[in-house]
Design goal:
Layout: H1 2-11, H2 13-24, H3 28-48
Helix pairs in contact: 1-2
Length: 49
């Protein structure tokens, strides 16, 4: 997982920095929805594999 998460800052650090700045202003509700979607996607991929 850390390898995948490290790809974006390694390849395009400027874009990663702007993404982090954007996430800082996103509401808690939107972050929770994105987190839930990410968890469900990860669980679904694990189930398929």
């Amino acid at each position: 997982m850390l390898v995948i998460e490290g790809i974006i800052p390694f390849l395009n650090p400027g874009r990663w920095r702007s993404l982090v700045a954007t996430l800082a202003v996103v509401s808690d509700r939107q972050l929770r929805i994105m987190g839930l979607a990410s968890m469900l996607l990860g669980a679904g991929l694990l189930y398929l594999i």
